[in-house]
Design goal:
140 residues, two-stranded antiparallel ribbon, 4-stranded mixed beta sheet, 8 strands, Ubiquitin-like (UB roll), alpha+beta, globular
Length: 140
């Protein structure tokens, strides 16, 4: 183990390791239930804003833009705890989710179960009730 990797894995300084696109993978879970709500990305600015404000900020790869969770929908995330993994290239945030985490209006982005039956792989809806109608919230 090199001195650098030892410092990353065992040290007390947060040294996030962004990928080639300048992003960290973020897993957001509900602080009360432990359920996985969403997986997203943060760039350096989103990470700094999240730490400074206690609100979840992300970087949209499709829109190439910084966004605060809930700025359009009102479905906000208050960060209760942030952890990094062993090599500091991913972040786990435990959040107090207000309303739905998913842009589809569902509590979690993980609302379909993968099942392999009868030679085919299918998706089955689970915990898929909508908390809001995205057509009403995200009007273009």
């Amino acid at each position: 183990m090199s001195a650098h990797s030892h410092e990353i894995e065992e040290g007390l300084f947060f040294q996030p390791r962004f990928d080639a696109s300048g992003l960290l993978t973020v897993v957001a879970t509900d602080v009360a239930s432990g359920d996985v709500l969403m997986v997203a990305h943060m760039n350096d600015e989103a990470l700094r804003k999240t730490i400074a404000t206690g609100e979840a900020w992300y970087f949209s790869r499709s829109r190439k833009a910084l966004w605060r969770k809930g700025e359009t929908s009102g479905q906000t995330q208050r960060v209760v705890e942030m952890r990094t993994d062993c090599d500091q290239d991913a972040v786990w945030i435990r959040v107090e989710q207000i309303g739905a985490a998913c842009h589809t209006g569902r509590r979690s982005c993980f609302y379909r179960k993968v099942e392999g039956e009868g030679g085919g792989t299918m998706l089955v809806f689970v915990d898929a009730d909508r908390l809001f109608d995205p057509r009403d919230v995200y009007k273009k």
